[in-house]
Amino acid sequence: SPYAPFDQRWHLRQEYKVHSQRTALAQQLARFILLYGLANLLLSPFIFIWQVLNLFYGYTELVRREPGLLGSRRWSNYGRLYLRHFNELDHSLNQRLNRGYKPAVSYMSSFVNYGVIETAK
Length: 121
Fold this sequence. Notes:
Blueprint: H1 14-17, H2 22-65, H3 67-70, H4 77-83, H5 90-99, H6 101-108, H7 114-120
Helix pairs in contact: 2-7
Protein name: Autophagy-related protein 9
InterPro entries: Autophagy-rel_prot_9 (IPR007241)
Family: Belongs to the ATG9 family.
């Protein structure tokens, strides 16, 4: 940027090396930082509202497209340890837990959550 004290190769610009110009350049840099800070402060409410709306509509679209994705469940570390057989290897535990995924999903899909359906609409 034209207001940065460093050039493209991360070396200090020549005008900053002149001792008589340092205070004027420091004041100029402080003024530009203040202006950019004020612009950021003035635009931050609009950016915040934009981010909140973008987040809300993004997740609403995701829930509408794939309703089961928001409530996807995983085994906790305690649950994995509790269900693990003595001296069972990781891959066999994962296979055994994965075999129960389809019955668990069909069981959970038997319940209707009207709040999620209304939110997704």
